[in-house]
Design goal:
The complex is a heterodimer of chains A (193) and B (334). Chain A is an alpha/beta fold and 193 residues long. Chain A is 28% helix and 30% strand. In chain A, strand 7 and strand 8 form a beta hairpin. The radius of gyration of chain A is 17 Å and the shape is globular. Chain B has 2 domains: 134 residues, 2-Layer Sandwich (Nucleotidyltransferase, domain 5), CATH 3.30.420.40; 165 residues, Nucleotidyltransferase, domain 5. The chains are: A alpha/beta (193), B alpha/beta (334). Chains A and B meet through helix 1, helix 2 and helix 5 of A and helix 2 and helix 3 of B.
């Protein structure tokens, strides 16, 4: 089985192919700030013949709104056109795959103005705090935890193994998981209340 | 040659299959206007979010409507700019992905070139021509000597004409988008309010922020005096001035460039005041006027497919690194 993995949600662009549970191709650019123009070239280098892909794993957030849409649009389009199953993954869970000595990994992504996107996972990637947009100061940390906020030691195979047999999503229904409404929507709600 | 075209520069997710730059085999336009109405105008982040949710649905629908398979398409054309960057990116990424999967040429199309070529779906363009492009985001006068050669001879220095209509509508408490309502009200009123003729000079440029401020001030002063605004009269006074300056500068361009063909394009081309004024002047001066039907006036992918065909004839093809541009000049290198 050949899988394609796409993560464009942050400055760290990751494209990978996995064949029979082994990493076949791995591209990572930790300081990427031009995902939308670069990503197709990386994808082309990673996959010679897109028809050989059996499943797409796409990270659909949280993170940069625009970044999320890049990966989701690509995955949806490929999935729809070639009828390839799509499985969506959490960026926070991906961070939480990092191997540490702690019992819990607290995955954090900066969401500005004192807010973060946060999720807490145990060693088997069981979710102990659902991914959410939260004030950094409001997080209740478990005992024996490590904070993970970078991609240095993520374990791609771990998250793929965990979700390999999840039910695929219909490409039309694949949506970004922003974890945050737009400011305009928030203001409109404030006005109504 | 059959082109699949994608347009997502603002708040319409649209795809179209166009044959030889002139035959519309099928067009789907998904408008988000009902969502943005709640906010009194287009909210860029909400527009981007809506595009990504509907992009493959629109693709499936257009293929069904045109009764084609993507394998039978010869090229993919896409709006790369100008527009809302987040919105543009969704259409662009879908286009690049399709070009990659099916190994098809990718044709980058400038949004304004699209508006101009909307006319080609009605009647083959005749050159040389002057194009007046008027919409919520654009006000441009373009001279074309031949296919896909653009010379911008003037344009707005601030607000686009459609944007000005929407803002004036807001002053008059008319819900977004107010442009069409002002047009209707203008027909019922009289030109009684004194407003300035915007940027009445020898250039081909326009400026609509002054008249917008004049309407705001007038409204404010009348309310201060305890007078009620006669909305129909104000709409009429405002529209008359806009029509006058657009007509004046367009007719001047036709004369100075010695051109006998005028095309009008963009959403505001649907405005009846502007249409009838230009029609009258064109008849008087023996000029052929073409205005596309409403369906092709507002943003749509059919016009991108039409323009894309002629861009392709000129060898304008992009590689897979094509990026979206929020601002870009018509005719510049991509």
């Amino acid at each position: 089985m050949k899988y394609l993995f796409i993560d464009t949600c942050s400055n760290c662009l990751i494209i990978s192919t996995i064949i029979n549970n082994k990493i076949d191709y791995f591209f990572i650019d930790k300081n990427n700030n031009d995902t939308s123009s670069k990503v197709m070239k990386v994808l082309k280098d990673a996959v010679n013949d897109i028809n050989t892909i059996d499943k797409i794993f796409v990270v659909n957030g949280p993170g940069s709104f625009t970044g999320i849409r890049v990966g989701v649009t690509i995955a949806k389009t490929i999935g729809f056109c070639l009828n390839i199953p799509i499985i969506s993954l959490s960026e926070l869970e991906l961070l939480a795959t990092t191997n540490t000595d702690a019992d819990y990994n607290v995955a954090l992504i900066d969401a500005r103005r004192g807010y973060v996107y946060a999720g807490i996972y145990d060693k088997d990637l069981n979710c102990c705090l659902n991914d959410q947009h939260i004030l950094l100061s409001d997080i209740k940390y478990p005992n024996n935890y490590t904070v993970i906020d970078n991609y240095d030691n993520i374990d791609l195979l771990k998250i793929i193994k965990k979700h390999e047999f999840d039910n695929p999503i219909n490409p039309h229904d694949l949506k970004p998981n922003y974890l945050k409404r737009t400011e305009a929507e928030e203001r409109l709600d404030d006005k109504r209340n | 040659m059959t082109i699949l075209a994608i347009e997502s520069s603002c708040d319409e997710t649209s795809m179209s299959v166009i044959k030889d730059g002139s035959i519309d085999l099928g067009t789907v336009i998904l408008s988000q206007i009902d969502i943005h109405k709640l906010y009194g105008g287009v909210v860029p982040e909400i527009a981007s979010r809506s595009h990504v949710e509907s992009i493959t649905i629109v693709l499936e629908e257009v293929l069904n409507k045109a009764n084609v398979k993507i394998e039978d398409i010869d090229a993919i054309a896409v709006t790369y700019g100008p527009g809302l960057i987040g919105s543009l990116l969704v259409g662009l990424l879908a286009a690049k992905t399709l070009a990659y999967i099916y190994n098809k040429p990718l044709i980058p199309v400038h949004h304004i070139a699209g508006h101009i070529y909307a006319n080609n779906l009605v009647k083959r363009l005749e050159f040389p021509l002057i194009a007046l492009v008027i919409s919520g985001g654009h006000t441009e006068l373009i001279y074309m000597e031949e296919d896909y050669s653009f010379k911008r001879i003037g344009g707005t220095l601030d607000d686009a004409v459609g944007e000005c209509y929407d803002k004036v509508a807001r002053v008059l408490n008319i819900p977004y988008p107010g442009g069409p309502s002002i047009d209707k009200m203008a027909k019922l009123g009289n030109d009684t309010y004194k407003l300035p003729l915007p940027l009445n000079d020898d250039s081909y440029d326009f400026s609509f922020s002054g008249i917008k401020s004049a309407v705001i001030n007038l409204n404010h002063n009348e309310l201060q005096k305890g007078n009620t605004i006669r909305k129909e009269d104000l709409a009429c006074s405002f529209q008359n001035k806009v029509v006058e300056i657009l007509t004046k500068k367009t007719m001047k361009a036709l004369k100075e460039y010695n051109v006998k063909n005028l095309i009008v394009a963009g959403g505001v081309a649907a405005n009846s005041g502007i249409r009838s004024s230009l029609e009258q002047e064109c008849i008087k001066n023996n000029i052929k006027l073409t205005v596309p039907p409403i369906l092709y006036c507002t943003d749509n992918a059919a016009m991108i497919g039409a323009a894309g065909y002629y861009a392709y004839q000129k060898g304008i093809i992009s590689d897979i690194n094509l990026n979206a541009k929020a601002n870009c000049e018509l005719g510049e290198n991509i």
